[in-house]
Structure formats: C-alpha cells, structure tokens
Design brief:
Length: 169
C-alpha cells in the first residue's frame, strides 16, 4: 500500500506554499543552533575520546581518574552527541524546522535547569566535585539558560516565522 498523506491527516505538500516571513526570518536562531551543534560536537567528542583529561580538569589532578567516572563521562558524551539530532533538524528554514524550534529550545531548557538543580544539590551536599568545579559547570549553563528563557518568553520571533498560502485560494 502506498503512503498517502491524507491517510494521516496531513495536508499534501502540493496543496500549500510556505514562505519565510521576512520580518522574522530566523537567521539568528539558525546561527545559534549551528553554533550549539559545533560546541556539542567538540564537547561530546572530548568526553568520549579524552575522559581522563576532562576528569583531571574538574577533580583532584593528583589522583588517577576513577574508571567508572571515565565510563560515565563517555556515556554523557554519547548523549551530548545524540542530543544534536533535534538541534540539527531545527536548523533548516523550513516549515518543520521553524515549528520544531520552540520544542527543541524548551526541551534543552528543561534539561539544563534540571542539571543546574542537580549541581546546586551536589554543592550543598558537598560530597562530589570541588566547589570550584561545580561553580564552573553551573556558570557554563547560566548563559544558555538565560538565552533560552529570553527567546522563548520575550523574543519568540527570533525563532522564525512562515506563512502558508493555499493553492487555488
């Protein structure tokens, strides 16, 4: 049986024309997403390929890194690389790309806030990383969190907009 868009309730691509709204082209968002993908590639690859080096940066460099911590850091690197998929899908200035940007940004914001709360809890508990390391990680999350809140709440047009013209209308 051939796939039919009407079977799934979606309009046919041939029935509408999508135009990018020139007053909200989404250029800033596309650059921000592309930059985030680049940073994620570097960070994720570094976590996977050099976990011991990264562990020395955030823990006591005089003791050898824990193999379990290195393995967990590699898993985190894999997750970091996997999370690039929705970011990459939101980069194109297409209908689906523009529509996915608020969802992608909300998801990333919720993950970053959850991580920031975990870091705060660890800082209070005092039995994990050094306060300096925790502050460094928390500081690196603050900028992206504030940017996402600002875009989602105050400047959603940065994400881009499109208009849809029905053919024959």
């Amino acid at each position: 049986m051939a796939w039919s868009s009407s079977k799934y309730g979606s309009p046919s691509q041939a029935s509408t024309t999508v135009q990018i709204d020139p007053s909200a082209p989404g250029t800033t968002m596309r650059w921000a997403l592309a930059a985030e993908v680049g940073i994620s590639v570097f960070t994720g690859a570094f976590m996977i390929l050099k976990p011991s080096t990264l562990l020395h940066l955030i823990s006591d460099p005089s003791s050898p890194p824990d193999p379990l911590a290195a393995a967990m850091l590699q898993w985190l690197g894999g997750l970091t690389l996997a999370l690039m998929t929705p970011l990459l899908l939101a980069v194109p200035n297409t209908k689906s790309g523009i529509e996915s940007r608020p969802v992608v940004y909300s998801t990333m914001l919720s993950m970053e806030v959850a991580l920031l709360l975990l870091i705060a809890w660890q800082a209070i508990a005092g039995d994990t990383l050094s306060p300096k390391a925790l502050a460094s990680v928390a500081g690196s999350l603050t900028g992206p969190i504030l940017w996402r809140i600002w875009v989602l709440k105050y400047e959603p047009e940065i994400m881009g907009r499109y208009t849809e013209d029905k053919k024959g209308a």
